[in-house]
């Protein structure tokens, strides 16, 4: 099992014939992704050779869906055209749009995520590394060779920290890793992924990576307390960030205690989540939780009281 992306997923790449699209399409194919076509109206009817695979180029997402049965699109188009690309995909009925493009204006991100939601299309991103179900499919730019299939689900705002935790926990492996992006407006939240991982029988533990700014992690903590029975381990980037300054690609502004790493850590710990002070310590927490659960004979916990989980491992 996995969330959002499986070996059955059929993937289109909008912007496949550009430099980044070509490079990462080759990597996705090498990882086993079923890339069934690219989309470029100016190059429709051509095929692009990727080693031993010839991939057709369609003039529209709708044509690509009709010809191949595609249900996922990965968007590698410039920021000025990203909104139109996602709107086109959503109007064509695509189920999942993975928006790699960074630098999309916030008002465009608001519009494209709202439009996609109204059409029933899930957006991952924008400004994200995509998602990978190791051993099955890889939609985006996540390196496929740094981990293996396993029992950890990962949701992260940060691409780099996604890769680091995947590598640190490579001996255990992952069900699905989702890079949701760190922009102020994203299509899929921590809570969406927590819900999906909670429902996935092959995910035994969830790793949540957040960043300073906003209240997404605090809202995720409340969701964990109320709805998640599986153990959750977290890491929050930005403990050394100065207050009142914009930091990082998220454009996170920290003011007073609002949006700080400490406030997020406290909210998560109050919900029973172990929070690491570094990525490596976070990985050690994961190993400790899984080891304790193995000794107890189970990983899933029993809901008690106000939604805390009794599993013998969570703080």
Automatic annotation (TrEMBL):
Active-site residues from the entry: 249
Signal peptide per UniProt: none
Q: Which GO terms describe its molecular function?
A: succinate-CoA ligase (ADP-forming) activity
Q: Does the keyword Calcium apply?
A: no
Can you tell me which residues bind substrate?
Answer: 163
* All residue ranges annotated as the CoA-binding domain in the record: 4-104
Q: Which SMART domains match?
A: CoA_binding
Its pathway is: Carbohydrate metabolism; tricarboxylic acid cycle; succinate from succinyl-CoA (ligase route): step 1/1
Query: What SUPFAM superfamilies is this protein classified in?
Result: NAD(P)-binding Rossmann-fold domains, Succinyl-CoA synthetase domains
Q: Does the keyword Ligase apply?
A: yes
Q: Which InterPro entries match?
A: Cit_synth/succinyl-CoA_lig_AS, Citrt_syn/SCS-alpha_CS, CoA-bd, CoA_lig_alpha, NAD(P)-bd_dom_sf, SUCC_ACL_C, Succinyl-CoA_synth-like
Q: What class of enzyme is it?
A: ligase
Q: Which Enzyme Commission numbers does its entry carry?
A: 6.2.1.5
What keywords are annotated for this sequence in UniProt?
A: Ligase, Nucleotide-binding, Tricarboxylic acid cycle
Enzymatic reactions = GTP + succinate + CoA = succinyl-CoA + GDP + phosphate; succinate + ATP + CoA = succinyl-CoA + ADP + phosphate
- Positions binding CoA in this chain are 17-20, 43, 100-102
What is this protein for, i.e. what is its function?
A: Succinyl-CoA synthetase functions in the citric acid cycle (TCA), coupling the hydrolysis of succinyl-CoA to the synthesis of either ATP or GTP and thus represents the only step of substrate-level phosphorylation in the TCA. The alpha subunit of the enzyme binds the substrates coenzyme A and phosphate, while succinate binding and nucleotide specificity is provided by the beta subunit.
Q: Which NCBIfam families does the entry mention?
A: PRK05678.1 (NF004230), sucCoAalpha (TIGR01019)
Query: Which protein family is named in the record?
Result: Belongs to the succinate/malate CoA ligase alpha subunit family.
Q: HAMAP family, from UniProt? A: Succ_CoA_alpha
This one is known as Succinate--CoA ligase [ADP-forming] subunit alpha
Organism of origin is: Streptomyces tendae
